[in-house]
Design brief:
- With 354 residues, chain A is α+β, with helices and mostly antiparallel strands.
- Chain A has 2 domains: 3-131, Creatinase/prolidase N-terminal domain (Creatine Amidinohydrolase, Chain A, domain 1, 3-Layer(aba) Sandwich), CATH 3.40.350; 133-348, Creatinase/methionine aminopeptidase superfamily (Creatine Amidinohydrolase).
- Chain A is built from 10 helices and 18 strands.
- Chain A has helices at 3-16, 27-34, 59-65, 78-86, 103-113, 126-132, 136-159, 166-179, 241-260, 267-283, and strands at 21-24, 42-46, 50-54, 70-73, 93-97, 119-123, 190-193, 214-219, 222-223, 226-227, 230-235, 292-294, 301-305, 318-321, 324-327, 331-334, 337-342, 345-348.
- In chain A, the strands form 6 sheets. A 6-stranded mixed sheet of chain A has the order 4-3-2-1-5-6, with helices on both faces. Chain A has a 3-stranded antiparallel sheet with strand order 7-8-11, with helices on one face.
- In chain A, a hairpin with a 3-residue loop joins strand 15 and strand 16 (331-334).
- In chain A, helix 9 (241-260) packs antiparallel against helix 10.
């Protein structure tokens, strides 16, 4: 974790946007820019200084995790500590993360900062844009998480059998990941069998899995703060003709996307590679979500890779490629890999069989 | 879950505050008022109608979970669907949850609603205040979660032994709860041994637990959406004199609070009952957090029970009572029960030995 390099990148952005300072409140951004993993606190970053405000619970932790920052201990109400926090910095303005700061918090910030002559300026996705391009060390951690989820899918191929409920399969997978290197899973394991597989966000239930039906399994592991995201659609016993036909279309769409996505491409063009194949096969309205999404510290982050995305895909970005076809009353198929853009092309990190 | 009764209570509040409509965006409030458990959507509630807007992923789920609501399917950008959503309701104003809606979302809402002649009005804790007083059915679910965490602490008293790491103990507890009726745990299990026990929010580490030192274990289970919160401070092997002395002070403070808190009391007065005992024993600055917090759908909700709380404690409220003493370099002791106010007095739900 190269905090000083990250701060340098942020300061370049601040300078380009002619902003004097930014208040970072979003927890993952706070961690990314400081190394501090506690649940509460603010970073204040100017051209030549960086401060971290947090309360007594985290004072010792900040000293260990964020030595690059000047520590400020929060005591009492914001109207008390905030003026002291910004004192001496000569601020005329302060950017704030408008997608994180609630209207209530904004109102309180404004009430305190306006009388001090400090103007609040909303920013969108500034730190998120920097986070989207991963450092080699971050990719290595994501690869660790990918390996854990790959192993968990391999495990469940033999551990699952008809007669188990979705919840039993989900817990078997979660337990496996936790006992093979994962921290608390970044999202609840999805196991959707039979008709439930038609719902992309189905929550595992007491539904008893039968042989021959599609089972969408969507899982993520987390290692040293970084996550993976993996979906495989399994079938216990012999798959019928319908399953094989749908599966082949989704797989073809995914392989085409993984082959043809290149650096510099816009998110919606990447999405279109897979979508065209699914549309042409006659399932235009059965692929109701985007092709993928960035991941890293969290399971959904920049870039977006869907039909409305204008994000430019760049080397170092890590994201998912996950086309799907969902047929109400029958079920669904989704196949998802975690990939990284390197040297202009996609390298697929997920090694799980398809 | 009596949705119509909850809506009636909300409408009484709207009427008292002379508000025409409220947009509910906070996920737990959305669930509480509708029964819809999906991850995205808005409720719009007026004096005589209730609407639920969500996207294609959740349309089927809404039909099953929230039959009392008129379903509206979100398609495309907010500027497209929001005007249609509010059409025909004759709104001049719309309250919104200012502690949930981000500044960015507020700006977009305003941009769309202002031209329609609809004024946005921030509200604070409106639904949260209603949620604070539990229905009998909610208390029954909390009691189920309490029983699971009680059993997990009982289990770990025999399963833990010197030489295990904090992480191993934490996972043993989590696994036990998951395999004995708990959904995904509402917060990561805290196991803080030796000096780590001095940190109220310590994350379990590779620290190897030794005999004779304090081990603060803070856990919660979740059953049918409702949570419990329980802390016990254990000691493997023989406790020394220091441990027993600190433990007795904390226990005395907790028992006094549980005996003396009555309905109608203000949060800070409830806090003071325990705090006075700890202060008098000479540890005034070693109890650095509030006495407790409400819980229900989430592990921190109204009422607040700390030194700055003005919340009035009422029958039906469920909250924690958790005094602690934390001594840097040595460790700490915290003892926490989940309790409910009934017939003017506290009934302790947690049955775990102290």
């Amino acid at each position: 974790m190269n905090i000083s390099k990250r701060l340098q990148t942020l300061r370049t952005t601040l300078s380009e946007k002619k902003l004097q300072a930014v208040l970072v409140s979003q927890p993952d951004n706070r961690y990314y820019l400081s190394g501090f993993s506690g649940s509460a606190g603010y970073l204040l970053i100017t051209a030549d200084s960086q401060l971290l405000a947090t309360d007594f619970r985290y004072v010792e932790q900040v000293k260990q995790q964020a030595p690059d920052y000047r520590l400020f201990e929060i005591k009492g109400d914001m109207s008390k500590w905030l003026p002291e926090f910004v004192a001496g910095l000569g601020l005329k303005e302060m950017a704030f993360e408008a997608e994180d700061v609630t209207f209530d918090k904004y109102s309180r910030l404004k009430e305190i900062l306006s009388p001090l002559g400090i103007e609040l300026k909303p920013i969108i996705s500034m730190v998120e844009t920097i986070r989207a391009v991963k450092e080699p060390g971050e990719i290595a951690l994501i690869e660790r998480a990918v390996a854990v989820s790959d192993a968990a899918i391999e495990h469940i191929r033999t551990a699952a059998h008809p007669g188990m409920t979705e919840l039993e399969v989900a817990w078997e997978i979660e337990k496996y990941m936790r006992e093979h290197g994962s921290q608390a899973v970044p999202f609840e394991v999805i196991v959707a069998a039979g008709r439930n597989a038609a719902l992309p966000h189905h929550q595992p239930s007491d539904y008893v899995i039968r042989a021959g039906e599609p089972i969408v399994i969507d899982i993520g592991a987390k290692c040293a703060g970084y996550v993976s995201d993996l979906t495989r659609t399994l079938c216990l016993g012999k798959a019928d003709e319908q399953f094989r036909r749908i599966y082949d279309i989704v797989l073809k769409a995914q392989m085409a996307a993984e082959e043809k996505i290149v650096s510099g491409m816009i998110g919606h063009d990447a999405d279109a590679i897979a979508r065209t194949i699914i549309d042409t096969a006659g399932y235009a309205d059965k692929f109701g979500h985007g092709l993928g999404h960035g991941l890293g510290l969290v399971v959904h982050e920049a870039p977006r890779v869907g039909s409305s995305s204008k994000d430019i895909l760049a080397n170092g970005m890590v994201f998912t490629v996950e086309p799907g076809i969902y047929l109400p009353e029958w079920g669904g198929v989704r196949i998802e890999d975690t990939v990284v853009l390197e040297h202009g092309k996609i390298r697929v990190l997920s090694a799980s069989r398809k």
